[in-house]
Design brief:
single chain; 443 residues; Rossmann fold; Transferase(Phosphotransferase), domain 1; 3 domains; five-stranded mixed sheet; 43% helix; 18% strand; globular
């Protein structure tokens, strides 16, 4: 009777609201004791397990008590990048089989297999007490090994580094190997001969990728030097680089801006994004040029931007370098942002002269054009669904949509009101004031 009551207490303790998502468990005692062990391993784990509950599309932490029911790729798709997976089983063999499957599917093992025993009459008896085995793994790859996406061209994964703050993982971004680039090109151009693909892939791995990774390193260092501290921590910080014999960066270690801050409203997302862009433009002197929603994060410090590989310094003379000039000309023709700007200009959705003139050019207007479009569809990035409170029918969504229309199609296209990220920030702040006044009047 006492043992049954103890198990009921354990279950109630474990099932209390929290960010922890448990999959299919009717077996509470090992989970309860394993979680106590995991909490003690690292402060980060305690934060994962004690964070307030959220109806998460992607989990920050999963506990699986029957590993045989799930494949490693299934679990990969349920977790955020950097999320933790705790596998628990009474059968040691199942844990031993799960570990290599996870490593082959985009995880790293953070804590090797260990064992807990269930107390009997308040004692853990080596031969009599039931035992359970567990491992702790982390999702370290953006995509499962062997999968490709247009969103990610470099090899990017989370690793541990001795210089990392608080012992947390850092991002390792490196030039991909020749084989993976050839495979990616084969998927995109299946009719092209292999030798032609290899020549193109070699150009990417030996010239294009190292050049852009070297530039990104320099841009991030400039931002860390120039931005105020509260803004500098919302862009990655360089920790270490590894260069080839020509001096090009081939591996870049930088701080990890983890998605997972407290949820914010759509209006606050727009305000923080415009404010960060204002500081990057006006204080940092940097133009991002690739502000797709994939490159936004919501961290504990607020909205951040990542992937500065296409960024340029303000007033930088790209034409002075023939290689860079050719690469940026190609980028200006083919980037998603430039294609959208061209189509929206043709259709009449963009009439502002300052934005239209930025087509196929390195210009700050490219950044604030795309920002004005992006904050009206924040859930287009699935990683942000749980982090931005968005209701397209609410007043703030309608006001932001009208603001975007004013930015893109001003009453006087030759003299638009919105000519910078700072102007957009002021427009968002005016919306905040109007909403606050409406709330006061409704009381």
């Amino acid at each position: 009777m006492r043992a049954a009551a103890s198990e009921a207490t354990d279950a109630a303790t474990f099932e209390r609201p929290g960010a922890l998502a448990q999959i299919a468990s009717a077996d509470c005692w090992p989970v309860h004791h394993v979680i106590q062990r995991v909490r003690a391993l690292h402060r980060e784990y305690r934060e994962f397990l004690e964070r307030p509950a959220a109806a998460a599309t992607l989990a920050e932490c999963l506990v699986v008590t029957d590993p045989c029911r799930y494949t490693a790729p299934d679990l990969f798709r349920k977790l955020r990048w950097g999320g933790l997976l705790v596998c628990v089983s009474r059968h040691r063999r199942r844990i031993d089989e799960m570990a290599p499957a996870l490593c082959a599917s985009g995880f790293d093992i953070e804590a090797p297999r260990a064992c807990v025993r269930k107390p009997l009459w308040g004692l853990r008896l080596p031969l009599l007490s039931p035992q359970a085995h567990y491992i702790v793994a982390r999702k370290v790859h953006l995509l499962p090994p062997g999968e490709y996406s247009d969103r990610f061209t470099y090899s990017v994964r989370l690793v541990h580094h001795p210089a990392a703050p608080d012992g947390l993982p850092v991002v390792l971004k490196e030039v991909p190997d020749l084989r993976s680039v050839v495979e990616r090109l084969q998927r995109k151009f299946p009719q092209t001969p292999v030798d032609a693909l290899e020549r193109r892939a070699r150009k990417f791995t030996e010239k294009i990728f190292p050049v852009f990774l070297t530039r990104e390193t320099g841009i991030l260092k400039i931002l860390q030097e120039r931005l105020p501290p509260d803004y500098a921590r919302r862009v990655p910080k360089v920790i270490q680089t590894e260069k080839d014999q020509r001096g090009f960066v081939r591996r870049l270690w930088m701080t990890w801006l983890r998605n997972g801050g407290r949820p914010i409203s759509q209006l606050e997302f727009a305000r923080q994004s415009a404010d960060l862009l204002r500081v990057i433009h006006d204080v940092g002197g940097i133009i991002h040029l690739d502000l797709r929603l994939d490159n936004f994060v919501i961290t504990e410090h607020g909205v951040g931007f990542v992937d500065f590989g296409s960024a340029v310094r303000e007033n930088e003379d790209i034409s002075a370098n023939p290689l860079l000039s050719g690469l940026f000309q190609e980028l200006m023709r083919t980037s998603q942002i430039q294609r959208m700007l061209y189509q929206m200009t043709l259709s009449g959705h963009v009439t502002s002269d300052i934005i239209r003139r930025s087509h196929q050019k390195v210009d700050k207007a490219v950044d604030f054009f795309y920002l004005a479009v992006q904050f009206n569809c924040p859930h287009a990035n699935p990683d942000l669904v749980d982090l931005i409170q968005y209701d397209p029918s609410c007043p703030e969504a309608h006001m932001l949509a009208r603001l975007t229309a004013e930015i893109l199609r001003p009453a006087d296209p030759a003299r638009p009101t919105f000519r910078s990220a700072k102007d957009i920030l002021h427009g968002i702040e005016r919306i905040q004031l109007r909403l606050a006044e409406q709330r006061r009047n409704n009381k």
